[in-house]
Write a structure and sequence with these properties.
Blueprint: E1 6-11, H1 15-22, E2 28-32, H2 42-55, E3 63-67, H3 76-83, E4 90-93, H4 99-116, E5 124-128, H5 140-145, E6 150-154, H6 158-163, H7 179-194, E7 198-200, H8 210-223, E8 228-230, H9 236-242, H10 247-262, E9 269-271, E10 274-276, H11 278-293
Parallel strand pairs: 1-2, 1-8, 2-3, 3-4, 4-5, 5-6, 6-7
Antiparallel strand pairs: 9-10
Helix pairs in contact: 2-3, 10-11
The protein binds coenzyme A and magnesium ion.
Length: about 300
C-alpha cells in the first residue's frame, strides 16, 4: 500500500475548499461528511462529494477519500450509497467500537463495488480507532480477523474525551495529553504495526501554530507513526517535510546498512563509538524505505 504523509480534511459541503485542496500538495484529501457538515446540508454535501470524485478520476498524485458518518447513525449508509458512484480511494470510518465495525463496512463496500463495477476490495479503509469508550478495550479484535481493506489506523482525543466523561483531555499547566489519550495513541500505533497497517497521527487543531505542529509531527514520527491528519492547507507542507527523512538521516541510515553489509555474519558492530545490532539495521532500512517511497532517497 502506498504510504501517505498528509491527509487533509476538507468539509464535504464546501466546493471552494475542495478545489483548493485538489490544487495543493496533500497526499490525500478527506472529504468530510461527518462533523464538518451540518445535518441540513448532508444531502447537498453527499452530492457535491460524489460529483467532485467523479470529476477527478486521476488519483496518481493525490488520493481522494471520504469520511462518512458513524455506522450506528442513520446517515452512514446513505453517505456510502451516494459517494461510491465517484470511486473514492478509501473511506475513513469514525467512532468504531471494534474491528467488527470495520468488517461490516467492508461488506457494505463489497455490495456497492459490485453495483459500480469496481473490483472487490479496491476501496480501502482507515478507521479512527479511539473515539468510543469501548474502543480502548477491543484493540485485540483487529488482530483476529480485520478485513484486508483496513490499510491504516488513526486516533482522536476529542470524541474520546466526551465518551469518557472528561471535562478536558489535557493537563491544565503543561497542556500535554492526559493518560487515557496517551494510551489511545500507543494502542493505535501498536495495533497498526501489528497488522501491517499505517499508523496515522491525529489532527493538530491549532492550525496557525506551525512550530507546535512540526514538534508534534517529529514526535509522532519518532514513535513510529507515519503521516498525519491535517485540517488546514497550511499544515500540509510541514507534515510532508516532517515525515520525509532528512538528508542526514538518509546518509546515516546508509552508513548503518553499509557497515552491516561489509561485516557479513556479524550481529553487532561499532559505528562512531556506538554499538549497533539488528534493531538498528531494521530502523535504518525503515528510513531508506520511507525515503524511497517519498522520492527523497537521492
Ligand atoms: N481544505 C482546503 N482549503 C482550505 C481548508 C481545508 N481544510 N481550510 C482552509 N482552506 C482555504 C480557505 O478556503 C482559504 O482559501 P481562500 O483564501 O481561497 O478562500 C484559505 O485556505 C485560507 O483559509 P483560512 O482563512 O486560513 O481558514 P478559514 O478560517 O477559512 O478556515 C477552518 C478555518 C478550520 C474552518 C478550515 O481550515 C476548515 O474547514 N478545516 C477543515 C475542518 C474539517 O474538515 N473538520 C473535520 C475534521 S476534524
Ligand atoms: Mg453532522
Amino acid at each position: 500500500m502506498t504510504v501517505l504523509r498528509s491527509w487533509l480534511f476538507v468539509p464535504g459541503d464546501d466546493e471552494r475548499k475542495m478545489t483548493k485542496g485538489r490544487g495543493g500538495d496533500a497526499d490525500a484529501l478527506l472529504f468530510d461528511l461527518e462533523d464538518a457538515v451540518a445535518d441540513e446540508r448532508q444531502d447537498m454535501a453527499r452530492a457535491l462529494v460524489a460529483d467532485f470524485l467523479a470529476a477527478n478520476p486521476d488519483r496518481s498524485r493525490q488520493q481522494l477519500w471520504v469520511r462518512i458518518n458513524p455506522l450506528d447513525s442513520p446517515l452512514a449508509l446513505p453517505d456510502l450509497a451516494a459517494v461510491m458512484r465517484g470511486r473514492p480511494d478509501g473511506i475513513i470510518l469514525p467512532k468504531t467500537y471494534s474491528a467488527a465495525d470495520v468488517n461490516r463496512l467492508g461488506d457494505y463496500l463489497s455490495a456497492l463495488e459490485a453495483r459500480e463495477g469496481i473490483a472487490d476490495g479496491a476501496t480501502k479503509i482507515v478507521c479512527v480507532a479511539t473515539e468510543t469508550a469501548a474502543s480502548l478495550l477491543t484493540f485485540d479484535s483487529y488482530l483476529q480477523n480485520a478485513t484486508k481493506r483496513l490499510v491504516g489506523l488513526t486516533w482522536g482525543g476529542e470524541d474520546l474525551a466526551a465518551a469518557l466523561g472528561a471535562s478536558d483531555n489535557r493537563h491544565p499547566a503543561t497542556r500535554d495529553y492526559d493518560e487515557p489519550y496517551l494510551l489511545a495513541r500507543t494502542l493505535t500505533l501498536a495495533t497498526a504495526r501489528a497488522i501491517d497497517a499505517q499508523p496515522v497521527g491525529c489532527v493538530f487543531i491549532d492550525f496557525r501554530d506551525s512550530e507546535g505542529l512540526e514538534r508534534e509531527c517529529l514526535r509522532d514520527r519518532r514513535m513510529g507513526f507515519i503521516g498525519k491528519l491535517a485540517i488546514h492547507p497550511g499544515q500540509v507542507e510541514i507534515i510532508n517535510r516532517a515525515f520525509s527523512p532528512s538528508a542526514e538521516e538518509i546518509a546515516y541510515a546508509r552508513r548503518v546498512i553499509d557497515i552491516f553489509e561489509q561485516n557479513p555474519g556479524l550481529g553487532t558492530v561499532g559505528l562512531d563509538g556506538k554499538m549497533l545490532d539488528m534493531p538498528h539495521l531494521k530502523q535504518a532500512r525503515n528510513v531508506i524505505a520511507l525515503a524511497e517511497q517519498f522520492g527523497s532517497a537521492n
